[in-house]
Amino acid sequence: MVSPSDQHSTFDLAAGTRGFPLRSALVLEVECLLKEPIMAILQSQGVHHITLNGADRQTSVEFWEGVLGMPLVFEQPNLDAPEINHLYFDPGDGRLITVFTSEDRTVDDTHNPNNAGNLHHIAFAVSRASYTQAAKRLRASGIENSGEVDRGFMYSIYFRDPLGQLLELACYKFDPPVGWSHSDVLHEAHVIRIEAGAPSISDAHIADAIEVLTRKRASSVTRSELKAT
Questions:
Q1: Which residues of the chain have pLDDT under 50?
Q2: Is 151 helix (H, G, I), strand (E, B) or coil?
Q3: If you ran DSSP here, which 8-state letter would residue 122 be given?
């Protein structure tokens, strides 16, 4: 008589598929799968900082702090190239916009290239009240801008820094329901607009998304009664 252990040790994958051999085949298949390299995700948890190449120190301070109100939190030498200065600005949420500067660099406002691999623009969040003042205050600082632009789910205004980098000030048209984020609302609005066959997210999709998410979180006696009937 052949014992189960003998069957397991002598089993040929190409030979049999009944009884213990079938179990052995499954075990071997799982073992092979476990030996294959697994793609592990490195989960990000937000933007830590963005670093730009600046010109001289004063140009960066006058723009980032003087125009956009980002306090200069600290500065120190670039740890990889000590001859370069490194400025750290707070954009308003406790994260950092940092700028490398050197006094031998000159200001060149040529627009940054719009090619594959190049940064297109950075968007900074502002309140609706600040947004309504943005075009006027940028012009008062001698900075040309796009004026107000309606993006469906947010309002935007575009302009360039002294070195030609495209920037944006943006404010959402909505506040997410309690317990949800802006991205949660936008994802739900995306699903709704796809089902509707719409080319982009509109006010109506945002309104419907907020209703859907609110219903998912909040309990309602009347809705419970309707379901019961």
A1: 1-18, 20
A2: coil
A3: E
Does residue 59 sit within a domain? yes
Backbone angles phi, psi at 205, to 5 degrees: -65, -40
Whether 212 is in a domain gets the answer yes
Provide the pLDDT for residue 38: 76
What pLDDT was estimated at residue 5?
A: 46
What pLDDT does 178 receive? Answer: 94
Query: DSSP string of 5-64?
Result: HHHHHH--TTT--SSHHHHHHHHHHHHHHHHSPP-------S--EEEEE-SSHHHHIIII
Buried b (16+ CB within 10 A) or exposed e, 199-216: eebbeebbebbbeebeee
Contact of 107 with 56, CB cutoff 8 Å: yes
Nearest to 190 by CA among 172, 210, 205: 205
Report the pLDDT value the prediction gives residue 39, as an integer from 0 to 100.
81
CATH code of residue 85 = 3.10.180.10
Tens digit of pLDDT for each residue in 204-222? Answer: 999 999 999 999 987 666 6
Structurally, how many domains does the chain consist of? 4
